[in-house]
Design a protein that fits this description.
The radius of gyration is 29 Å and the shape is globular. By secondary structure, it is of the alpha+beta class. It has 14 helices and 40 strands. Helix 10 packs parallel to helix 11. Bound molecules: alpha-D-galactopyranose.
Length: 799
């Protein structure tokens, strides 16, 4: 609920209170017309007394700070908590808006003049007449109207409140009413000034196959910047940022979360001033950005979403999870559980033909897979990554019956069919490039830097966009295609569009062009499940999720690395948008061996797929996979929209190993799925406690694991401690025994109360520690993990 208080109606000094279920966001108009931020945090009963109590305007200015004007000599912008910030009038902190005015000056001074409140605000999720995505189904929207005190430039601050998820979005409109153009050098979506005490900034950084490492940096007077300059939101610096108090952990304490609905270069910065305030700004990266708007034109920034949580980072993450599920992901697949898929990439790379794919598809069907995805390699002469991007004609040598022929056969097997595309790209060695070299981004006459042997098509050109849309329409209409993996595998260099007169507009205009084609395509094919991808997680952001309901989180499918990566994503993104696959062992990125059990367990906390040549699996692996897929299907609704908590986030334990633990609890608390994984086995480790959260204290639950069997070979020559004859490890006889005899794994099976699981926890079976092994001992070596299933038990009243 948005409330508006009037301090003094004659002076137009209103106070705006934006309330969500558990938070309050407050700012007020000062007599000088500036917007002073009062508070953001847990819900407060404010009232006019609250305004007085929090305004904090001093009578005398501190030291050598600048006084705003002779009329308001006690207003110094350097130490005011502001809703909007510019340069040139005394605020020397990180600015939000920087313009070059008609006279070449760069000072601006935005003063309140009006507001508009839209109750029951509804949006179809896109800006009027553009394809810039925004969050949909907000409850109320407040538009604060400001005008430069000296110029005909207007600014609108747009706030949309999403009450149930404790989220508020913010964006800015710059309206040019000057006689001629102005240049926008910086237009960030949000400026927020908070108390700086004990504040730190969490960022999520990485690289290819190493996405979402969690960092925490203390906010001081030195700027902390989290930004991308790859042309995408990037795996180097995901746009998600959290500001937290020092003491805040997953379960306790206050935190603020921010993300941007944008897929291009982003920027955020936190910095304390010398007066106990910290400024946080977020928006489009101002680096290499300079946007001109003519008389009467409007520039509108992307939308930033912010949330506050009082009870720890799990609370904060859940706000984001609900927000993304209810206000970002849209259309047919928003509320529909996703099919278990098999993707051909790590199974075949570029080496396949129709027979090989169909053989895999047959096996996949038996395993319980529902969708077969043919990844890269199906078009042009694409036998490696040096050619054919842009030539979206099927390779008839590999697929003599075309896409339709293959799709029909896959469908006959009872599977849906999907494909991989990379529409934004072109190889120089392609017919498309030979015909239209000028469609690729390139500075004329200058050597272009290369990335995966490909160039980026100039999506700021309407002609290029129309061409791509038409090609993809044809492709998707040519066969029964129910899934598309939309990839994007290079970062931007040599920014230049031959169609543009102002090259510093290129990066942003590209993103607008991308959204245009994505919107046209996904709306034309509403039943197709689109999965975003950019070398894995190089464009894992809320912009892409506004068009595509899930994203391939990383090209790293190693179970332990994925546990870390998926933990990183969990801070700001729900499991329902994270695609995760079971792959081969040794793993293709790390050469690490992990048990199939661990590879499944990690992938089960996402939208599950296989990325392995199922034709090569042995009977034991097949049997286990069948059981794993079957149980995933029983619990996938919990993973899809349950409440997710990090129980352990990978920190080193007192025994020197690292552990990740997660739980997902269904909304009605009748079902849950819990996960634990360690990196290293520790000798003589005591029984692990598993204490969960989120279950109903008053319910009773059946707690159990999947019955497992372990191969004799994993015990090496320990076999000789029980064998009547000596068996040489890895000898033929060892292998024969291994085939006949498996070792039983431990069984966890109990009925206990929710309060016990939540408040006390349970002790799991002891780990193998060199002193004996049977079915009561956990076989728990390096990178071992377990899934636990938790189901409500309803007492039968007649018992
Ligand atoms: C990227 C993707 C992979 C795969 C390859 C195909 O690297 O992230 O999943 O699709 O491209 O070339």
């Amino acid at each position: 609920m948005i409330e508006i208080l009037d301090k003094n109606s004659a002076k137009n000094t209103k106070t705006f209170l934006l309330n969500t279920k558990n938070t309050t966001y407050a700012f007020t108009v000062l007599e000088s017309g500036h917007l002073a931020h009062l508070f953001y945090g847990a819900k407060c009963d404010f009232g006019l007394d609250g305004v007085k109590a929090t305004e904090g305007i001093n009578k005398y200015l501190a030291g050598n700070t600048i006084s705003y004007s002779s009329e308001y000599s006690n207003i110094g912008l350097e130490d005011l908590a502001l809703e909007v910030s510019t340069i040139g009038k005394g605020d020397i902190r990180e600015p939000q808006i920087c313009l070059t005015n008609i006279d070449g000056s760069t000072s601006n001074d935005f003063i309140y003049h009006d507001y508009e409140l839209i109750k029951g605000y509804s949006s179809n999720g896109y800006r009027h007449l553009t394809c810039m995505p925004e969050a949909f189904s907000g409850d109320e929207q407040l538009i604060i109207k400001l005008k430069d005190s000296q110029r005909n430039i207007y600014l609108e601050l747009v706030y949309t409140v999403f009450e149930d998820t404790d989220c508020i979005t913010r964006r800015v409109r710059i309206i040019n009413k000057e006689e001629t153009f102005i240049d926008i050098n910086r237009a960030l979506s949000l400026c927020l000034d908070l108390p700086s005490k004990n504040l730190s900034m969490m960022t999520f950084t990485g690289a290819w196959t190493r996405e979402m490492n969690v960092n925490e940096l203390k906010v001081t007077q030195n700027k902390i910047v989290n930004s991308s300059f790859t042309g995408t939101s990037s795996n180097r610096n995901n746009p998600l940022v959290i500001l937290k108090r020092k003491e805040t952990s997953d379960f306790y304490g206050e935190a603020y979360g921010f993300n941007i609905i944008y897929s291009g270069n982003h920027y955020s910065c936190a910095q304390a001033n010398g007066y106990g305030k910290a400024r946080f700004v977020m928006g489009i990266n101002p680096e290499n950005f300079d946007f001109r708007i003519e008389h009467d034109e409007i520039f509108e920034t992307p939308e930033v979403v912010m949330t506050f949580a009082k009870n720890g980072l799990n609370n904060l993450s859940q706000n984001f999870h609900e927000f993304i599920r209810n206000h970002i992901v849209r259309r047919t697949w928003a509320k529909k559980v996703r099919p278990v898929l098999l993707n051909s990439w790590e199974a075949c790379y570029f080496k396949f033909n129709e027979t090989k794919l169909l053989n895999m598809a047959k096996k996949a069907k038996d395993l319980g897979v529902e969708l077969f995805v043919m990844d890269d390699g199906w078009f042009g002469n694409r036998d490696n990554d040096t050619c054919s991007l842009g030539d979206w004609d099927v390779n008839l040598k590999k697929l003599p019956n075309g896409l339709k022929g293959l799709a029909d056969k896959i469908n006959e097997l009872g599977l849906e069919f999907g494909i991989w595309v990379e529409p934004e790209m072109v190889n120089v060695d392609s017919n498309l490039y030979r015909e239209h070299p000028d469609w690729a981004i390139k500075i004329p006459g200058i050597n272009h830097s290369e990335g995966r042997n490909q160039r980026i098509l100039n999506l700021t050109m309407e002609e290029v966009r129309d061409y791509l849309v038409a090609r993809i329409f044809d492709m998707l209409s040519s066969a029964n295609i129910k899934y598309v993996k939309w990839d994007m595998n290079r970062i931007f260099t040599d920014y230049y569009g031959i169609n543009l007169s102002r090259q510093k507009e290129m990066a942003h205009r590209y993103v607008l062009g991308l959204y245009d084609i994505m919107r046209r395509i996904v709306e034309e094919f509403p039943d197709v499940l689109f999965e975003g991808c950019a070398s894995g997680g190089n464009r894992f952001d809320l912009g892409i999720l506004s068009f595509m309901p899930q994203i391939w989180a990383s090209d790293n499918t190693d179970a332990w690395c994925r546990a870390k990566i998926q933990t990183g994503y969990s801070y700001g993104y729900p499991t329902s948008v994270i695609a995760a696959h079971i792959s081969a062992s040794p793993n293709h990125q790390t050469l690490r061996n992990t048990l199939q059990e661990s590879r499944f367990n990690v992938a089960a906390f996402g939208m599950l797929g296989l990325e392995v040549n199922v034709s090569d699996l042995n009977d034991d692996q097949i049997q286990l996979l069948k059981e794993q897929i079957a149980i995933y299907k029983k619990y996938r609704d919990v993973i899809f929209d349950g409440d997710y908590y990090r129980l352990s986030n990978g920190e080193e334990t007192e025994f020197g190993n690292c552990v990740y633990e997660w739980i997902c609890v269904s909304k009605d608390k009748t079902k849950a799925l819990a996960f634990t994984m360690q990196d290293k086995a520790v000798a003589n480790q005591p029984n692990a406690w598993l204490r969960v959260t989120g279950l109903d204290d008053n319910k009773k639950y059946h707690f159990f694991n999947m019955s497992n069997k372990y191969e004799i070979k994993h015990f090496g020559d320990l076999i000789n401690t029980v064998s009547p004859i000596h068996i040489k490890p890895d000898s033929a006889i060892h292998r024969v025994i291994g085939k006949l005899k498996k070792m039983d794994g431990e069984v966890e099976d109990m009925v206990v109360s929710g309060s016990l699981l939540n408040n006390c926890g349970i002790r799991l079976h002891q780990n193998y520690a060199g002193t004996g092994y049977d079915g009561d001992v956990r076989f728990y070596q390096d990178f071992a993990s377990r899934l636990f299933f938790i189901e409500e038990v309803v007492d039968n009243e007649n018992d």
